[in-house]
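Forum > Structural Biology > Help requests

Title: Can anyone predict the 3D structure of Transmembrane protein 168a?

Hi all, first post here. I have the sequence for Transmembrane protein 168a but no way to get a structure on my laptop. I'd be grateful if someone could post the structure tokens.
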Amino acid sequence: MMDQEEEEEEEKLMAKRPSKVVDVCTPMCCLGYLARINLLVAVSVGMYVRWEVTSEPMILVIFILGLFVLAIAGILHYYFAMEKASLSLFHLWFGFLLGLLCFLNSPEFGSNVKELVANYLLIASAVMKAVWAIFERICSSVHYKPTLLTSVEWLELLGFGVASTSMLLQKSVAIIGLVVALGALIVDLRMKSLLSLPNLISFALITSLVFFQALGIPANPYALGCYLARLLCEPVLDVYFSGLGPSERWMPVLSLGKVWRRLSLFPLCVMELAFFVLAALKLGHLELWYLVIPGFCLFGLFWAICHIILLITTWGFHTKLSDCQKAWRAHQSGRRSLDQVMASRGIRHFCLISERLVFFTVLSTVILGAVSWQPSNGLFLSALLVVLPLESLAHGLFHELGSCLGGTCAGYALVIPTSYCSASGQPTLLPPDHVQELNLRSTGMLNNMQRFFSHHMIQTFGCDYSTSGVTMEAVQNKLRSFLELRTADGPRHDTYLIFYSGHTQKGSGAWVLSGGESLQLAQLLELWKEKNAGHGSRLIVVLDTENSLPWVKEVRRVDSVYAAVQGAELSASGLDPEAGDAPLLGDFTAEWVEFNCNPNSDTQWCEKGRTVTATYGVSKRWSDYTLHLPTGSDVAKHWKTHFPKATYPLVYLSNWCCGLNLFWLCSIFLRCFKRCKLAWFPPAVLDTGQGIKLVHS
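Reply #1:
Sure, ran it for you. Structure tokens for Transmembrane protein 168a below:
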């Protein structure tokens, strides 16, 4: 009986849930359908007015054909359940009809009452579309997917472009260029490019004030405004509402194959060349020849150099991305993401430098467009509107990847399994009966660290294992070589991680080495300062020892470097030693690696009664750390590697402009706040930003 009652209650709950969803979705659906019906009526009335005033039979034919197409769309939707096909016909045809309403305009229509009704209906349709889009996003009923253009946008853009073929060839080509510019602007907004909003403003101003006047077309502002509002409303709102991360937004580009990405450079080059040729037509205007000719020659040369750099930079990025895709597909069975592969291959450093270079490309286009401004040339205006969002997309791609990708990391592990000491405190060889067990635990630690290095795409310098101890000279030489390690592109790694497990001194936590010597934290930091002088890398030391707490406390007093120590405490209080449950070296490593490599790990570091507890300490300046930014020498090396000597003067201009810090006062207050927060309220889990997490019990 109880089971039946529970099943009945569940059925009631399941019956109630859909009604709530319907209650929420019904107003949105009604508003969306009402916007479409308004648009249908407005287009019908507008086309009727044009036929009535002009008596043009072709308009009547198009109008009747439109009604026929809408009838077919309705039949496909309601009788054959072909919703996608019907909506495709609907949006394609309405893009075409809105284009005709926009282009077939005359001052005679202004005094017609039916035309006024059609204009008001167009405004109402655009407003309802905007309210519908806002309401959907506030109610979180929009499921975002990585895409450049939706099918609706493609079809309405295509329909509007087809409508332009009713005019002369030159005007038609200019309007098709405007449609391409609108599509590029939509992609620019959806990708949240840094320059997308300035591009939107410039597009609106040029289109409304100059473009149609240059073509001599008395465009209907209501039809044009309705068309633009319908297409731009959702991308503009998604600049705020979209929750997709940078790499998710750009995934349609990053996941393209090598051939398609290379071929995408061809239309870009064609558009850039067309813009330059159209800009050169300004030289035929001789009113201010003494300003136009020298200005065009100077800024035209600057534009050409910048765009050669853009082409080389984009080609180099595609080459690096292809290598990352190969590595990602080779390890696709694991849990690595493409982001991790790109971060490990130094894509972030490449993008930070490329962002500077592409910014000068955008700047050169703006300057050349201003110098060769032609308000009476519709082709020039459309070409300018196309190239600006395309270059903005390139700048946005490099900016987003440079800010979201983690830095590079190098790792080194040292395990010295000596747990017995002589009277002088130095390690001695183990008894034979403990050798096998300790070797197994040490091998387990090394395997765990190799898993950790592999999972986080850390460049492994080595995993050393010695049962007879290591001399001070050997350790220092090994550490010096490790701390000198650099990426394949030349700059230092952002993070250097050292793992150590072995015998340590009780009071100081120093590593006990053979020959009566020991390595103090101060000595390790001196090596670090020597090798990291003039660079902003950071050092992380992970200790699986019995006396790691002294190093954790000592690093908190260090002020001059970015350093952190992750340690562990083994507590055997309350445990029966004969039961064999006492914690041993290697237990912390196993749990810490599992926590860092498995996002579904159930490890609770703050759980009471733990026998293995974790603790970490960071230097005073740790919160000031930022991932390595390209220095002047980095930019110069990059330039010499990828670009011809004729472009070298831009190195100095790039370094000077990017070296300006206009918000230095705000950065001081923010730095102080972060330091106080980390010192007074350290988090239980400190994310270093590269997937490596320091933990505190």
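The chain is about 60% helix and 5% strand. The domain at 409-572+583-628+661-695 is CATH 3.40.50 (Rossmann fold).
Shout if anything looks off.
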